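Memo to structure team: turn this sequence into structure tokens by end of day. - J.P.
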Amino acid sequence: MTYYLIKGSMASMGGLDSSGAGSSGIALWGVLAFFLGAPLGLLGNLARVPGIGGLFFRLLIPLTAFYETSMRLEMESHGPSQVVLGTWTTVRFTAVAVAVALVGHTVWDWWRSRRTRSTEVGVGQ
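Reply from structure team:
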């Protein structure tokens, strides 16, 4: 929220370009940050649940990054610079790579714990 307040005050002093930085969008994001901070913190805590139970919550960040940059690519594809396109493409690729790594890590842990339990059961008999 502090970021948006500083950005808004800089825009009102003329410190930023006239891209709408001082518009009501800053107030909206500030209010959303205030009210969504606690629920998003809860989601972050739920992401710490080991195994498949927390996988969905761990995937929220890469999926959100992929979706948001996809929307930006669609909106900004009418003449953005190659730097912008390269940045959004890199973010999307990284988001997919992180999502695949998270799923792979979860499956690997599940498989490893399953094998460990099966060998412990076999030893005890």
